[in-house]
Amino acid sequence: MADWNPDQYLKFADERTQPSIDLTSRIRLQKKPHKILDIGCGPGNSTHVLAQQFPHACIIGIDSSENMIQVAKSTSIDLDADLDFMICDAATGLPSLETNYDIVFSNAAIQWIPRHDELLRNMMGRLKPGGVMAVQTPLLEKHPLHRIIRSVANQEKYKGTFSRNIQRRNNLSPQEYATILSDIAERFDIWETTYYHIMPSHRDIIEWFRSTRLRPYLAALSPDRVPEFEADLLDAFTRNMPVLENGKILMPFPRLFFTAVR
């Protein structure tokens, strides 16, 4: 699959950044943090939120995408903050990182990584005693648009096009996360928030997902079939998502949050 496209991802920068702001506001530490790890930092928008909230901390952003890291570095040059970014695949690379972080943060990244029991233990292992792990992940199983995407992909004409791995569910249920956290954390909080985004059109919904959930689907299609698949998605979105009086679309987006103290 091709590398991530930061420009496409940042078309909805404000909407994508708001969960980072909300998650950061829930982090509670007895002392000011000195070191923060931002896992799946993308183009740096979440890292910048952390820098605003914790201006005296050294913050390391990691991501598996070279394109994302390049943009994160370029957009951070003029900031008065101690930021560094490096390529690291959190699925395999976390054990090689230091274990003296005050905060381990991850916004909308762990859904791309398998084996969350192992992942959360590795994330918690990067913390000092008393440090905080803070995570947000989309609730894909509860997202109505993800169900629509799957229903289109499962149409007969696309039979054999998409592998089962594309629709593989990495995320766990809130109960399963709570079970893991109760074993590895001194204490934790877990909650759910549904954001309602006002989208200009049904086509903009495709633009939103083009940089995230649609990536593996589009990568599996030959270039000549991409327009057909997107047209089928547009038709399904139009039929299932009513237009408001002002001509715009209300797009719900449920997300799961948790913070945990080592």
UniProtKB/TrEMBL annotation:
Keywords tagged on the record: Methyltransferase, Transferase
Pfam families reported in the protein's UniProt record: Methyltransf_31
SUPFAM superfamilies: S-adenosyl-L-methionine-dependent methyltransferases
A GO biological process held by the record: methylation
Highest taxon of source: Bacteria
InterPro entries documented for this protein: Methyltranfer_dom, SAM-dependent_MTases_sf, Trans_acon_MeTrfase_C
Record-annotated Methyltransferase domain positions: 32-168
Molecular function in Gene Ontology: trans-aconitate 2-methyltransferase activity
The name this protein goes by in its record: Methyltransferase domain-containing protein
Record organism: Oxalobacter vibrioformis
